[in-house]
Specification:
The chain has five helices and six strands. It has 146 residues and is an alpha+beta fold. The chain has a single domain (21-144), classed as Nuclear Transport Factor 2, Chain: A (Roll), CATH 3.10.450. A six-stranded mixed β-sheet has the order 2-1-6-5-4-3, with helices on one face. It is globular and about 45 Å long.
């Protein structure tokens, strides 16, 4: 019976060690978005797409409707941005990162593309979920604005 308090203490410490603070989560999510921005600006769609959940259940909602699945999202990006001139330079402005529940956040912001083929700007809302220790975008809603 003397081992019970030690078992409970060990369990409590290991559970607490796995949890992260709100600020740690927000910084990690900001890092995901910086990774996206840098990859985009380096014309590196593969690294950009690593930030998305590689699943058929990923959802992207834009002007063309709902696209389901990681591969379909990649195909959509490649079709919409076929050249480096279409990629241009991406800049995000983040307005809100809010916890939905343990391990899930929403992110709201704006994007700005400076491009040879004409600038573009818009808004987005992302849902990110922590999976296997990494934050992944599971839902992306993006819309261009004039």
């Amino acid at each position: 019976m003397k081992t019970l308090p030690f078992v409970l203490l060990f369990f409590s410490i290991s559970v607490l060690a796995q949890k992260t603070t709100l600020e740690e989560d927000k910084k990690a999510i900001e890092t995901v978005l910086r990774t996206q921005q840098e990859a985009w600006n380096n014309y590196d769609i593969e690294t950009f797409m690593e930030t998305y959940w590689k699943s058929k259940d990923l959802k992207f909602y834009g002007a063309g409707g709902v696209v389901k699945g990681w591969q379909s999202t990649l195909d959509r990006y490649k079709k919409s941005y076929p050249t480096r001139a279409h990629f241009g330079t991406l800049n995000f402005v983040l307005h809100d990162i809010s916890r939905i529940n343990e391990g899930a956040y929403s992110v709201m912001g704006e994007f700005y593309l400076t491009r040879e083929v004409g600038d573009a700007k818009g808004i987005f809302m992302l849902i990110l979920k922590k999976m296997d220790g990494a934050w992944k975008i599971i839902t992306d809603t993006s819309a261009a604005v004039n």
